[in-house]
Amino acid sequence: MKQKNIIAVVLITVVIFVGTFVGLNIFNSSKTEKLDKLAHQCIVDGNYQKAVDYYSELYDRTNDGSYIDKKREAVELLSSKNNYDYGVNYLKEMKYVDAAKSFLKVSNKDSVNYQKAQQRLQESTQAVIIASDSFAEDDNFDASLNMLNSYARVMPHETIVIDKIKEVEKAKNQYNEKKQDEEKQRALSEKKEKEAREKAEKLANESAEELKKEKENTKKPDKKDESYETDDNKRLIDLCIRLVGKTYLVTADNAKIYEEPNNKSQVISSIPMGSEVYIYEAKPDSGQRVWCHAIIKSADSLKSYDAWISSNNLEIND
C-alpha cells in the first residue's frame, strides 16, 4: 500500500512539473509573440526607440539572433528619424546646407519619414533659390554664389541650383562689365571736364578783362540821376564781372541750358537742382538777367555740358 502511495505521489509530481514546464513555455511563447507584434507596430508607427527596446528584450528572452538583426534595423531607422528631426530644425534656422545634409541621410526604408524628407529637401532648395535671388538683387553676387555653390556641393544633381549658379554668374559678369564701362566713362568725363575747365578758366580771364573795358566805356548816368544803381547796364556788367571765374549751384529744377545766350536758341538739355556751374563768360541781357557761358556738371549723371544758362537759375549770394 505504501509503495502505491509513493508511486502516486511521484506521478503527481511529474505531472505538475510537466504541466508547469508546458505552461511556462506557453506563457513565454505568448509573451514573445506579443512583444514581437508590439515591436513591429512601433516600426510601422515610427516609434523606433521603443522598437529597439522591445527587440533587446526579445533577444534577452529568447537568445534568438534574428532579433539582433531586427534591432540593428530599428537602430538604423532611429538614426534616420533623428536626421529628419535635425533637418527640420536646421530648416527653421535657415541653415539650408545642414538641412539638406540631414534630409539626405533619411533612409528610404524609413516609411514614416522618407517622403517627408524628400518634400523638405524641395523646400530647402526653394529657400536657397529665394535667398540667393535676394542677394543678387542687391548686387551682392558673391554672397549669392557662395550660398548656391555650398548647396550644390551637397546636392550636385539639383538642376535648378546648377542653372541658378549659371544665371547669377552671368548677371555678375554683366554687372562687372557695366561697372567697368561706367568707370571708363567717369574717367573720360573727368578728363574732358578737366580740359574744359582749364580752357574755361583761360577764357574767364579774357572775358573778365573785356567786361572791365566794357564797363569803363559805358556812358555815365544822366546828371539828373547820378545814382549808379539805376544804370541797369552798368549793374549787369558788374554782375558779369563777379560771376566770371566762379562756381555756382543751380537752384531751379529742370533748368534749361542753351546753345546761344538767348531763350529762343536750341535747348541742349534740362538739368536738375544742385548741378554745378562754372562760369567762364557772361553777357548782360535786358532786365535783371545775365547769360552765363559755363561748364555745367549735372547733379544726376556723369554728363557735363558746355552751354549757356540764365543767372536767374543760379544761387548767387555775392
Automatic annotation (TrEMBL):
Region feature Disordered, mapped onto this chain: 173-229
Listed transmembrane segments: 6-27
Give a yes or no for keyword Transmembrane in this entry: yes
Question: What does the UniProt keyword field contain?
Answer: Membrane, Transmembrane, Transmembrane helix
For this entry, the protein name equals: SH3 domain-containing protein
Organism of this sequence = Finegoldia magna (Peptostreptococcus magnus)
Kindly list the organism's lineage.
Bacteria, Bacillati, Bacillota, Tissierellia, Tissierellales
